[in-house]
Amino acid sequence: MDRAQVRGSLMAGFDAAEGYTRHMRPVHSAVVVLCLCVAVAASALGTGLVIPVLDAETLQPIPWIHVEIRMEGRAGVVHLRGTTGDDGAVRLPDTGSGIDAVTVFVHGYEPVTLTHFTHQGQEQRAVGGALLWRVDAQYLPWSSTRPLSWSDFRGVAPADAEHRRQAAEVHTRLTLAGEVQATSAAGRWSARLSPGVLQVTALLDRSRSWALAHRRDSALLAHEQLHFDITEVYARLLRDKALTLVGQGTTAQAAKDALQRDLRVLVDEISRRHERTQRDYDAETNHGLNRDAQDAWAQKVRSWLSVPSRAP
Question: What is the pTM of this model?
Answer without folding.
Answer: 0.72
